[in-house]
Amino acid sequence: MGRFSTIRVLKNSYSLHSRLMGQKVKTRIYAEHIDVWYAQRRIEVLPRLRGENGHYINYRHVIDWLVRKPGAFENYRYKEDLFPTSQFRTAYDLLRSEYGSKKGNKQYLKILELAAKESQTAVNESLRFLIHHGKEIHFEIVEVMVTSRLQPPPITDIEVDQVDLRIYDQLLEHQEAPV
């Protein structure tokens, strides 16, 4: 495995957990997936990419490395793959505009690490709530929301007025069309 937590298989790049950097792994290629073996154990099942020069980067594989070296995130080759949902991307953009690139990157990586270690869904819902309500986005705020297990309100509260169905009866009345 290379020094950037990726391997090349059939001219495509795949991420593996950063603890395997510099280690030798074996792969078994199947029609729909690739098995990755280390120390005679299957450690990962990756979706097989078609074509050449593609990449499959799982943020959970590289987050430990990026948190230790947050400066590397700015020019990370597969940076766009580290936004699991649009909420994460929006939060990243807001953090950078609020705190600048260096501190914004650190904040985002800590939030992404929280998603990897706790729950991506809970972090995503917390970010959605904060973004929708125009609240400040900060790691400590997101962490409190996630660890307290408080559920943000539903995405939208829609009220639908009752429809008077008698108005449709008028459509059934027979009338001759003028000629």
Task: Give a description of the structure.
- The protein has helices spanning 59-68, 86-117, 120-132, 139-147, 166-172, and strands at residues 6-9, 12-15, 26-29, 33-38, 41-47, 55-56.
- It is an alpha+beta fold and 179 residues long.
- The protein folds into two domains: 1-56, no CATH class; 59-155, no CATH class.
- It has a three-stranded mixed β-sheet, with no helix packed on it. Strands 3-4-5 form a three-stranded antiparallel β-sheet, with no helix packed on it.
- It starts with 5 loop residues before the first strand and ends in a 7-residue tail after the last helix.
- 22% of the residues are buried.
- The mean pLDDT is 88.
Average residue pLDDT: 88
How does the helix and strand content classify structurally? alpha+beta
- Helix count, DSSP H or I runs of 4 or more residues: 5
Identify the overall geometry. extended
Q: Order of strands across the widest beta sheet?
A: 1-2-6
Number of domains: 2
Biggest pleated-sheet summary:
3 strands, mixed
Low-pLDDT runs? none
Question: Number of DSSP strands?
Answer: 6
Give, in order, the helices and strands: EEEEEEHHHHH
Provide the gyration radius in Å: 24 Å
Task: Name the features.
179 residues; alpha+beta; 3-stranded mixed sheet; 5 helices; 40% helix
